[in-house]
């Protein structure tokens, strides 16, 4: 395919939900060693009430075998809501739309809060909605993730120099939570054509916040040439397993 055809293909793929099956054969992402989905299933089976933040299309949560008697999922991006309700409604999960800056739930409403790849964590709100002794389980995306990709397009960027686990533990602690574990793994991503890069940047919008094909066409052309010469573009991302509780 030509460069323009690849750009058009990557621009046309729907971005709703968190189904990444389109990338099969076009990009790969290594998985962290702790298997978050298994940890989530264990925590959900032991909970009586749960809240999943940034649920996306509910794909990860829908894979849990046993739901608590009361399970809620929150999603801020409107196009994801019908996808999440389709995936989670049959499982008895109530899907709520709304921002994460002020959680629309009463204090001490849940004994488990979970999230996978949140864009922002409202730590004070998490502490507020957890019961005393309630638990937080999450897999965060650390600062510096995909740095090779976003700096290829945007040039050098500043970021928080603290190690990701240290920064996360400090933010959670400031909200009154006790961090039991904050463990980091760096994983490898490979992109095999520029269409995969375009779709990834449209879907994972915080990687290059002002991304459009038109704005970055010249850099995408350079990236296309590099993939043609090397067979792939390699980047690395931080994943941080976080376990915490409210005292």
Automatic annotation (TrEMBL):
<dbReference type="GO" id="GO:0032259">
    <property type="term" value="P:methylation"/>
</dbReference>
<dbReference type="InterPro" id="IPR052939">
    <property type="entry name" value="23S_rRNA_MeTrnsfrase_RlmA"/>
</dbReference>
<dbReference type="InterPro" id="IPR013216">
    <property type="entry name" value="Methyltransf_11"/>
</dbReference>
<protein>
    <submittedName>
        <fullName>Class I SAM-dependent methyltransferase</fullName>
    </submittedName>
</protein>
<keyword id="KW-0808">Transferase</keyword>
<feature type="domain" description="Methyltransferase type 11">
    <location>
        <begin position="51"/>
        <end position="137"/>
    </location>
</feature>
<dbReference type="GO" id="GO:0008757">
    <property type="term" value="F:S-adenosylmethionine-dependent methyltransferase activity"/>
</dbReference>
<dbReference type="Pfam" id="PF08241">
    <property type="entry name" value="Methyltransf_11"/>
</dbReference>
<dbReference type="InterPro" id="IPR029063">
    <property type="entry name" value="SAM-dependent_MTases_sf"/>
</dbReference>
<keyword id="KW-0489">Methyltransferase</keyword>
């Amino acid at each position: 395919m030509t460069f323009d055809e690849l750009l058009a293909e990557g621009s046309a793929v729907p971005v709703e939900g968190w189904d990444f099956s389109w990338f099969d054969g076009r990009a790969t992402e290594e998985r962290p060693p702790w298997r978050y989905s298994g940890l989530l299933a264990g925590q959900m089976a032991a909970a009586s009430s749960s809240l999943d933040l940034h649920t996306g299309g509910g794909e990860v949560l829908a894979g849990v075998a046993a739901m608590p008697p009361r399970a809620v999922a929150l999603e801020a991006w409107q196009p994801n809501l019908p996808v999440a309700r389709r995936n989670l409604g049959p499982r008895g999960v109530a899907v709520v739309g709304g921002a994460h800056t002020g959680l629309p739930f009463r204090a001490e409403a849940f004994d488990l809060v979970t999230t996978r790849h949140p864009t922002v964590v409202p730590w004070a709100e998490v502490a507020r909605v957890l019961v005393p002794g309630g638990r937080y389980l999450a897999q965060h995306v650390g600062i510096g993730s995909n740095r090779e990709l976003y700096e290829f397009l945007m040039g050098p960027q500043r970021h928080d120099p603290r190690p990701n686990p240290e920064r996360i533990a400090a933010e959670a602690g400031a909200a009154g939570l006790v961090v039991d574990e904050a463990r980091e793994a760096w994983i490898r991503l490979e992109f095999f054509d520029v269409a995969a890069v375009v779709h990834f940047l449209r879907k994972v919008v915080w990687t290059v916040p002002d991304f459009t094909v038109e704005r970055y066409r010249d850099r995408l052309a350079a990236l296309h040439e590099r993939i043609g010469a090397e067979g792939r573009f390699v980047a690395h991302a931080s994943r941080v397993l976080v376990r915490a509780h409210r005292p």
